[in-house]
From TrEMBL:
Family label: Belongs to the LysR transcriptional regulatory family.
Official protein name in the record: DNA-binding transcriptional regulator IlvY
HTH lysR-type domain segment(s): 1-58
Domain of life: Bacteria
Length: 295
């Protein structure tokens, strides 16, 4: 079976959009459609439901997606093992991270990796860091960047890169509010405060626990996906937020934010790399992983 066709199918299974997939794969929509139809003929079943409104995987398509991921991974492993071009690694490595990570510490990591392995193409995807573990577990990404959870999922390896404090932030335009909330936290002061929090993830879990220790439930003004959106909404005066220090260090809105010196402080967390333990021996993943841990 044509590996390129499998790669096109995997991209389509991720985007569920023929037009977007054709652009990402640099082929015409008609060529993509022909390739998918040929795959369906080869396997003898329908892999995708499609109409004018949407595209979705059939049950058989979901099973075939798992096969395709393994087949492409096996092919890349064999292809690299057979190549002996001055031991130069080639291929594609998918990496998932937040927007903040992409232009902060990850910038230096990728620059160094590019210099050492110029033939490895990085496919960088950005989104909510709370999805990092799931993206790796599902096989969507080779490596992801995120915060280490309290309980690591089975089969996932983690390599720490940095630590970041978790901070309460207020709009700089409301100094009286910031002054009222700074210092030792009390239930009276925080009872009616509108909060802008992550929908999920470690920061949300630690914030919820902090409020429980006060005997309160947070008054949620908004739940958002991504720390950058929290900073934006807080800067506009919509409420108090919780974000990692690393986000503020790289935010263009930092001057419009005031950090609250709240006691007790939220527990800091480790930020690092996630990958499947069983895939750490694959050449491309091994190259990226061990560059971060040369010792």
């Amino acid at each position: 079976m044509d590996i390129r066709a499998l790669e096109h199918f995997l991209t389509l299974a991720e985007t569920l959009h023929f037009g977007r997939t054709s652009r990402l794969c640099h082929i015409s929509p008609s060529a993509l459609s022909r390739g998918i139809r040929q795959l369906e003929q080869d396997v003898g079943t329908t892999l995708l439901y499609r109409d004018n409104r949407r595209v979705s995987l059939t049950r058989e398509g979901e099973r075939f997606r798992d096969y395709a991921r393994q087949a492409v991974s096996d092919w890349n492993t064999v292809r690299l093992a057979l190549q002996d071009d001055q031991r130069v690694l080639r291929g594609e490595l998918s990496l998932y991270c937040s927007v903040t990570a992409s232009y902060s510490f990850l910038h230096d990591m990728l620059s160094s990796f590019r210099a050492n392995f110029p033939r490895i193409e990085i496919k960088l995807h950005t989104g909510d860091p709370a999805q990092a573990e799931e993206r790796v577990l599902s096989g969507t990404e080779d490596i992801a960047v995120g915060a280490r959870p309290v309980q690591m999922p089975n089969g996932i390896a983690f390599h720490p890169v940095t630590r970041s404090a978790l901070l309460f932030i207020a709009p700089a335009s409301q100094p009286q509010l910031a002054e009222r909330l700074s210092g030792k936290a009390s239930s009276n002061a925080w009872r009616e405060i509108p909060m802008i929090l992550s929908e999920e993830g470690l920061a949300r879990e630690r914030t919820d626990r902090w409020f429980r220790d006060l005997g309160l439930r947070p008054q949620i003004y908004a739940q958002v996906s991504g720390n950058e959106a929290i900073v934006s909404m807080v800067s506009l005066g919509f409420g108090i937020g919780v974000v990692p220090q690393i986000v503020l260090d790289n935010s263009p809105l930092a001057s419009r934010i005031r950090i609250l010196d709240v006691q007790p402080r939220l527990e800091a967390y480790e930020v690092g790399l996630f990958a499947l333990e069983k895939r750490l021996g694959e050449p491309l993943i091994d190259a990226f992983w061990n560059q971060q841990n040369p010792g």
